[in-house]
């Protein structure tokens, strides 16, 4: 299919979804900060949407999974692909277990594999995705080969490595590939007969469902996993408490995204209670669950339900010094969103720059950063030098 054909197909899709929701072109234009003429030209296929951030804004306005619109715009999706996401997808595409099935021996020791898997998570928590992709390119084949020879000792590492891969792909805006990695992590955890690893894989899968806007699936996965852990969490098993708390925080985000603000804050309070029982912050199964992370999720929930004031007040009080750079930078994205909701352009841009200083690759690869900058550009005309620099850095027109 040619590029003009893609434009027409996408335009018809947008028009049909707009009409299905009872929206006029004027109403949709107002929701996305565009002109009626722009909407009309897109729907007729005479104007090309050349930025994924614009497509994301349209998907949000039409309450559609981004993948549904991106499927009709693969040229745009491919154009904005990051090298790290491409490399990680290639890792998932290899048939690495076949070597072991055909009798090739494993040359890596379990201690070496364990150390490299731990490094993979250090890189994921630091949002150093290029280095992570390089590491997993060699680690995943070694783990798949070793798992055949030493299944009892290696499948837990296989699960952990695929979870790191899923976490990175989700942050890089590739929920489909992240889903594949999370599913492989789940299978490896089951083969390791490790209930907590299965719960951790479920935790990763929930993030994938949230990113893909499959909120019913996200809630069902989080709810059933949390319910299964409930007894152990009540009994005070630390790992179960951490995983239960992390899944409950995810349920708060799901509730917020689906308009259930009261339920979202109730989940936050439940998670806060179990975090208090745990005491200090923990990082069981790389969830980073603890009091500080609860506050970060409260900020996210407040932004999702449009309570920018509550989000900014919480951000002023939270101590993030014990959290990974990835979590601290992700909080700054929410702070930027809160400032954008209040049309505080300079403050929002400053928060984005801080996030970029902490995790450059996360800022460059995260769809939220592009969406925030796109929104800020509609608020400030002409844009400040700092905002122009951000727009160039993120590729937002």
Give a structural overview.
- Helices cover 77% and strands 0% of the residues.
- The chain has 397 residues and is mainly alpha-helical.
- The radius of gyration is 22 Å and the shape is globular.
- The chain has four domains: 1-80, 434 Repressor (Amino-terminal Domain), CATH 1.10.260; 82-192, no CATH class; 213-323, no CATH class; 329-397, no CATH class.
- It has 23 helices and no strands.
- Helix 15 runs antiparallel to helix 16.
What proportion of the residues is helical, as a percent range?
Answer: over 70%
Mean pLDDT: 88
User: Which structural category fits the helices and strands?
Assistant: mainly alpha
Query: What is the straight-line distance between the termini?
Result: 26 Å
Query: Beta-strand level of the residues, as a percent range?
Result: under 5%
Helix count, DSSP H or I runs of 4 or more residues:
23
Features:
434 Repressor (Amino-terminal Domain); mainly alpha; 23 helices; about 400 residues; 4 domains
List the helices and strands and how they pair.
Elements: H1 3-20, H2 25-32, H3 36-43, H4 52-61, H5 66-70, H6 74-79, H7 83-93, H8 97-101, H9 110-125, H10 129-149, H11 151-171, H12 175-191, H13 195-211, H14 215-235, H15 238-257, H16 261-278, H17 291-304, H18 308-317, H19 325-341, H20 345-358, H21 360-365, H22 367-379, H23 385-394
Helix pairs in contact: 2-3, 4-22, 7-10, 9-10, 9-11, 10-11, 11-12, 11-13, 12-13, 13-14, 13-15, 14-15, 15-16, 15-17, 16-17, 17-18, 17-19, 18-19, 19-20, 19-22, 20-22, 22-23
């Amino acid at each position: 299919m040619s590029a003009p054909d893609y434009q027409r197909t996408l335009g018809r899709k947008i028009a049909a979804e707009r009409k299905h929701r009872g929206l006029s072109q004027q109403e949709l234009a107002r929701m996305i900060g565009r002109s009626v003429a722009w909407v009309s030209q897109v729907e007729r296929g005479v104007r090309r949407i050349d930025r994924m951030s614009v497509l994301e804004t349209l998907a949000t306005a039409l309450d559609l999974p981004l993948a549904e619109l991106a499927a009709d715009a693969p040229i745009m999706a491919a154009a904005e692909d990051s090298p790290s996401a491409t490399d990680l997808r290639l890792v998932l595409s290899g048939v690495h277990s076949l070597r072991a099935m055909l009798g090739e021996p494993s040359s890596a020791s379990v201690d070496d594999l364990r150390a490299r898997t731990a490094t993979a998570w250090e890189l994921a928590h630091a949002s150093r995705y290029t280095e992570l992709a390089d590491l997993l390119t060699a680690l995943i084949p070694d783990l798949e080969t070793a798992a055949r020879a030493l299944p009892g000792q290696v499948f837990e590492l296989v699960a952990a490595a695929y979870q790191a891969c899923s976490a990175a792909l989700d942050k890089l805006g590739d929920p489909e590939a992240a889903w594949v990695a999370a599913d492989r992590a789940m299978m490896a955890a089951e083969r390791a007969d490790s209930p907590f690893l299965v719960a951790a894989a479920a935790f990763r899968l929930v993030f994938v469902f949230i990113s893909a806007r499959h909120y019913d699936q996200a809630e069902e996965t989080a709810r059933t996993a949390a319910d299964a852990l409930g007894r152990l969490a009540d009994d005070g098993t630390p790992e179960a408490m951490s995983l239960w708390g992390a899944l409950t925080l995810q349920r708060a985000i799901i509730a917020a995204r689906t308009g259930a603000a009261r339920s979202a804050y109730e989940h936050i309070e439940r998670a806060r209670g179990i975090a208090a029982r745990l005491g200090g912050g923990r990082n069981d199964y790389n969830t980073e669950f603890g009091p500080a992370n609860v506050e970060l999720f409260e900020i996210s929930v407040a932004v999702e339900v449009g309570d920018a004031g509550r989000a900014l007040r919480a951000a002023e009080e939270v101590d993030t010094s014990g959290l990974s750079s990835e979590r601290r930078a992700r909080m700054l994205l929410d702070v930027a969103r809160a400032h954008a909701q209040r049309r505080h352009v300079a403050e929002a841009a400053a928060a984005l720059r801080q996030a970029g200083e902490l995790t450059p690759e996360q800022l460059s690869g995260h769809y939220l950063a592009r969406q925030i900058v796109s929104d800020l550009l509609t608020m400030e005309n002409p844009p400040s030098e700092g905002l122009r620099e951000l727009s160039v850095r993120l590729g937002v027109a």
